[in-house]
Amino acid sequence: VLGLLVWALIADTTYHLHAAYGWVMFVSIFFWILTVLFFVTYLLQLQLKFYMIPWPLVLMIFNAAAAVLYITAFVTCAAAVQPTSWRQWDYNRRAAASFFACLTMIAYGVSTFFSFRAWKGLGSNAATSQVTDHA
Q: What is stated as this protein's family in its record (predicted)?
């Protein structure tokens, strides 16, 4: 949802006049589409059919790449916002897109952390942590 807000807010401005927003649009739309594809894959449990793919590793790499590229998109978007814009509605939408790009970057960073824990097998739940072997 956050990625959708980023590219929807940028798309509603005159982004084609500023080259910097082309990069922000590419990153936000590209990772939004890939995120939706991963979501549908897990929703339909298609990852169980492709068991030979190391899904925790794939998700960790995807989330890390998304976090790094969203850092560049956030910095680019925030630097391109001009408070002296002659169109006030463009300024508001671009500033909001910068804010949501920052939130999206943080969300992908947190997802990277949890994907790393899942990949390394560090995650546990209450049921597995209560079982001990006292033989």
A: Belongs to the MAL family.
Q: Write down the pLDDT at residue 122.
A: 73
Name every residue whose Cβ is closer than 8 Å to that of residue 94 and which is 6 or more positions away in sequence. 9, 10, 13, 21, 77, 80, 81, 85
The answer to whether the pTM exceeds 0.85 is no
Buried b or exposed e, range 43-64, using 16+ CB within 10 angstroms = eeeeeeeeeeeebbeebbebbb
Distance, CA of 21 to CA of 75 (rounded, Å): 11
Q: Where are the alpha helices (DSSP H) in 2-135?
A: 2-11, 19-43, 55-80, 88-120, 126-130
Find the length of the chain: 135
Find out whether 97 and 24 touch, Cβ atoms under 8 Å. Answer: yes
